[in-house]
Amino acid sequence: MDPRDDLPLVLVVDDELRSQEAMRRTLDEDFRVLTAGDTDIARQLISRHEVAVVLCDQRMPGQTGIEFLKEVRERWPEVVRIVISGYADSEDIIAGVNEAGIYQYVLKPWVPEHLLQTVQGAVEASQLHRGLQRLELDLRAGPQALRARRQTRLREAKAVFDFDRIVRAEGSPLDGVCATAQRLARYDLSVLILGESGTGKELLARAMHYASPRQNGPFVVENCGAIPDTLLESELFGHRRGAFTGAVEDHTGLFQRADGGTVFLDEIGETSPAFQVKLLRVLQEGEIRPVGSARAVPVDVRVIAATHRQLEDEVRAGRFREDLYYRLAGATLQVPPLRERPGDILPVAESLLDAVARELGREPAEFDDDARAVMVGYPWPGNIRELRNEISRALALGDGPLLRATDFSRKLLGGQTGAAHAQRTSQLTGGTGLALPGSGTLQERLDAIEAMVLREVMLRLRWNKTHAAKELGLSRVGLRAKLQRFGLETK
């Protein structure tokens, strides 16, 4: 059996082949993807396969995306629907979103990360729908069966999102972050998580939710920087029928759906001052007012927010409200980027290698020493997300169960300047010391570090000894002696 058979199935409907392939590449790591160039083919595919989510471009020949998704709603109501459009302010789109029961619409030009997050949320909605169907069966079976199934699902979620499952090396800087997060999880404080994109802020938030007294409640996610303010307000707080043109039915916002649970607001630093005022009122009053409603609705949620920006700097610059900042930052966690915890690179890479190999249906693989040296020597500006992409590429292009340095992209081999390399070496040998070998005498450990640095430099400089000697401050004779000493003389 192909391991990918267990992945959710997503159908992309777009008459432009280039757009189809771009979405396929974005989604293919986490989902099985089918594509259709017109709605006739799309109907056949939905009829034959158990599709979880369908993404449809609005401008389609013969039938608009909204019209097709209305039909999908009628014939296959369990399929979650997403429309893609370049017309953000079109009243037709807003009206169609409600009439066709659209989960969300994505604006062009779409951002791969946002598209992936949107589809992940849609898949969760699809799974929730199927879960509700199972719930109906459980209710018929009796309360004991219901409680047993609920406890089973909770145990499974806690096992996946436990703090101990956040991969890191022994003595990692993340140990302190996770320990603090675990203590904070027990209390109903708002938490602000700071860190660069791709460092795993959402994973940390999920772990906090499942370690909290709210673990039986929902955990919902919204990327605040991915959609316009008008839609963000409706998405979070809901709207009433007739609130605006196209609002043909009531819409329940995420805060109401998360009642009793946790709302994770990602990229909170991207919101406008006008929206910040509305969010502040919600946090102060503990109630939301759906768009077009005269009545406030009480909600019981915990808010965890995250951003790649330093919000204190944004407050000083007048771009973020100070009062909202203090409401969100009941406690603050700073997730360090991957380059500041080099000891975590290899454990994270090993974990990703196993996961990606299963997703791609590949046999188990491992890294050779040169590949390890290259990964440790690269600064990873895109953090764990970039590391995952490189491993996926290496598995797809590599030959056999052993991944080599040459299977990585060229930027990993040539992505550092001499200054960056010097800084990296300083991190490896000083600072945290996380990359030091775990055993041996002082000299043996220093030799291991020296061999690793030599290997990384030679690979990055394509075995050019003149350039390597200059960067390392050695003569060619001295460099050759060291390469011979550590068995690195041959490429």
How do you describe this structure in short?
The chain has 491 residues and is of the alpha/beta class. It has helices at residues 17-27, 39-48, 65-75, 91-99, 112-141, 143-160, 173-185, 201-210, 229-237, 254-257, 273-285, 311-316, 322-328, 345-360, 369-377, 383-397, 410-414, 418-429, 442-460, 465-472, 476-485, and strands at residues 9-13, 32-36, 53-57, 80-85, 104-107, 191-194, 219-223, 262-266, 287-288, 297-298, 302-307, 331-334, 366-367, 402-403. The protein folds into 3 domains: 3-118, Rossmann fold (3-Layer(aba) Sandwich); 152-336, Rossmann fold; 339-485, Helicase, Ruva Protein, domain 3, CATH 1.10.8.60.
CA-based shape: globular
Helical proportion, percent range: 40-55%
Write out the strand line-up for the largest beta sheet, numbering strands in chain order.
2-1-3-4-5
So what's the CATH class of the largest domain? Answer: Alpha Beta
Beta-strand fraction estimate: 5-15%
Number of helices: 21
Radius of gyration: 25 Å
Query: CATH superfamily assignment of the largest domain?
Result: P-loop containing nucleotide triphosphate hydrolases
CATH architecture of the largest domain: 3-Layer(aba) Sandwich
Largest sheet: 5 strands, parallel
Domain Response regulatory: 9-123
Domain Sigma-54 factor interaction: 167-396
Pfam families: AAA_lid_14, HTH_8, Response_reg, Sigma54_activat
Organism: Ideonella dechloratans
